[in-house]
Design goal:
The complex is a heterodimer of chains A (about 210) and B (about 80).
Chain A: E1 10-20, E2 35-43, H1 48-58, E3 69-77, E4 86-91, E5 124-129, E6 157-163, E7 166-172, H2 189-196
Antiparallel strand pairs in A: 1-2, 3-4, 5-7, 6-7
Chain B: E1 6-10, E2 22-27, E3 37-45, E4 48-50, E5 64-67
Antiparallel strand pairs in B: 1-2, 3-4, 3-5
Chain lengths: ~210, ~80
């Protein structure tokens, strides 16, 4: 299916399964009695070349070596309800162009090459070399009071040390915990909430490639 | 309460992103479409919004409007009534 009308972005394809979808009238409108649509793809009006140029310019023409370029997506309820809060946001777990910052729900268990991951609760579960300032590291254990997460079996603990000129962040005490290194100095509540409810689950086997 | 009713995934582009970055969106709601959600996007460079794209479209903090897209809910079978 093509041709969704979008401002600034273009829906280029959708995947529709063969599974029919039809609910009672009290749940959804009849118009939503449709085939199951698995996903939609959007093409944003920005490409890698433009990002490269804009990023380099923003850094005073120094190029993007060592820089982190991430895409952040946000979804909000319609402005027809101006009181509605931001409901979700997303930052690409892998950078658009280079480098890496994020350890996110889909990300960490699959990054054996980048992160030395062990699964035993209370032990080191992740280790990743991240050249980031301390102020960018957040430990997500201070949930919003009205949306508190389930009690944590064991709190996360971050420790940092310098090794051969690189900053090594060690995350311990994870079991169904979300682990994230935010690439920004300010705490992003919405990003936190989004991440929280898709809690990070550490792998069950030791995947440590050094 | 579902905190993140829609999920996003940056897709690999066969031509290195030329022609536009591609993002795949999924609706995580069980019963309702994503049509009531307004999408927006921005690029962060070292944690700071990077000003790219059409300045006329740009909002506060570097956010650009992404419109909305109606993605059907997650449920794969009709509800069972007893």
């Amino acid at each position: 299916m093509h041709g969704h009308s979008l401002e600034g972005a273009e829906a280029i394809s959708v995947c529709i399964s063969d599974v029919g979808l039809c609910f009672g009238p009290t749940m959804v409108r009849e118009s939503e009695c449709i085939s199951k649509q698995e996903w939609a793809e959007l093409r944003l009006p920005i490409d890698s070349a433009e990002l490269q140029a804009a990023g380099s310019q923003a850094r005073g023409g120094l190029g993007l070596t060592g820089a982190e370029v991430l895409l952040e997506m946000r979804a909000q309820l319609s402005t027809a309800m101006p009181w509605a809060p931001m409901v979700t946001t997303y930052t690409s777990p892998r950078p658009v162009l280079s480098g890496r910052f994020m350890m996110a729900e889909e990300h960490l268990p699959h990054r054996a090459a980048d992160a030395c991951v062990a699964a035993l609760q209370g032990h080191v579960v992740a280790e990743q070399q991240l050249p980031v300032p301390n102020s960018w590291i957040r430990e997500d254990d201070d949930a919003m009071p009205d949306q508190a997460p389930p009690p944590l079996a064991k709190p996360l603990h971050f420790s940092q040390e310098e090794r051969s000129g690189s900053k090594v962040i060690t995350v311990t005490g994870a079991n169904d915990l979300y682990v994230e290194v935010l690439p920004r100095p300010s705490f992003n509540t919405a990003l936190y909430k989004d991440a929280l409810w898709g809690a990070f689950k550490p792998p069950q086997a030791t995947v440590c490639t050094g | 309460m579902l905190q993140a009713p829609i999920s996003f995934e940056l897709k690999d582009s066969p031509n290195g992103g030329l022609g536009g970055l591609i993002v795949r969106a999924r609706n995580k709601n069980t019963f309702v479409s994503s049509a009531n959600l307004l999408l927006s996007w921005r690029v962060l460079l070292d944690g700071v919004p990077l000003l790219v794209g059409d300045p006329a479209q740009r909002g506060l903090a570097g956010w650009y409007p992404g419109g909305s897209v109606a993605i059907a809910p997650q449920a794969t079978s009709p509800p069972q009534y007893h």
